[in-house]
């Protein structure tokens, strides 16, 4: 019964040059991608509330799905001659060997580090081969539906004490959450950590902008409620990253108007509508408190980091440059693949910490050394460049969604901390959708 419902919701890829049997294979791969996404959203809920005793193994609950998807895609010749996968696999295998021979020597740590680029990175290209534009729109509709109960949950977490059931930590334990401001803590939603909530609503913002701007088929009540959910989630999250991310998505949309000037009239109505919604929300005490807490967070962080512009520049570029300026003592082959992850530190030292570096480029160079680390970084940067060119190409032809997805996906692909499974999952999923849109548009038969 569930399989039939999925088959009805997830239609075959009409652009795939496969026979009937091939279409069935594509359908099953689509089910796997949906399962990957659902586990991404609810992995934290499983680890906190449903199966707390299995919290540690559930950290990699998506890995078997990723392995199955990559294996099946390879079996169906969907990943043939993909130079990004070949390059990344080669670098990873060399790094795995050097980690065992001249690095930390722990095979489990090396395997945990290798899984990031061996089984998750290829999913970007699996999604590109399997999904089409209609599939991405279906994900967008589901995400907007899901934003409504999600904002109710984070509101409950925001206003509840840390000892409340909704604020239980991993393993079902009472733990102090991430400090926000004025005594309030950052709500994680269904995720293990608050970063998942930030990334989820960043994705909500993309589809809110897209559905208002391009008006694909969606119940307008749901779109209005999802928009309100986003407006409420920004202060409730106490997350500057979410605020910056939404602003960046809006800037990407505004830049797209160069190729679609007819949309300028829409902006007026959208801005007026948002202003009215914001004024209405301000009449409610719960929203006023959230705004006050969020404002206090912005002010304190700005003072500590020397202003918003300094904070943004340092977050985006500072740690990238410091990966090389502070790498003089790193061995040629690095300290070993996986050692810079929290799981790696747990397996090596018995406690979760940052043995090498917290930020991505620093971690990669420290783990793999200057040569291999730079090679891995370059693969991600070159892929980012290809995606920008591809999204720009279809943007000029009226398709803006891939461009909007890159407002969040670009930073994630280039320098987000993929050692953290939730950040990795959202990064792969967002980039994979953008890649699928670009490929689907380019493969569209010309009339």
Can you put this structure into words, describing what you see?
The chain has 447 residues and is mainly α. The protein has one domain (2-442). The protein has helices at residues 2-9, 20-50, 63-75, 83-101, 107-120, 123-130, 133-159, 194-214, 220-237, 240-256, 264-281, 285-305, 308-325, 342-349, 360-395, 401-415, 421-442, and strands spanning 178-181, 184-186. A two-stranded antiparallel sheet has the order 1-2. A hairpin with a 2-residue loop joins strand 1 and strand 2 (184-186). Helix 5 packs antiparallel against helix 14 (342-349) and helix 7 (133-159) packs across helix 8 (194-214). The longest helix has 36 residues, at 360-395. The two termini are 39 Å apart. The model is unreliable at 12-21 (pLDDT under 50).
Which helices and strands appear, and what pairs or packs with what?
Layout: H1 2-9, H2 20-50, H3 63-75, H4 83-101, H5 107-120, H6 123-130, H7 133-159, E1 178-181, E2 184-186, H8 194-214, H9 220-237, H10 240-256, H11 264-281, H12 285-305, H13 308-325, H14 342-349, H15 360-395, H16 401-415, H17 421-442
Antiparallel strand pairs: 1-2
Helix pairs in contact: 2-3, 4-5, 4-15, 5-14, 6-17, 7-8, 7-9, 8-9, 8-10, 8-16, 8-17, 9-11, 9-12, 10-16, 13-15, 15-16, 15-17, 16-17
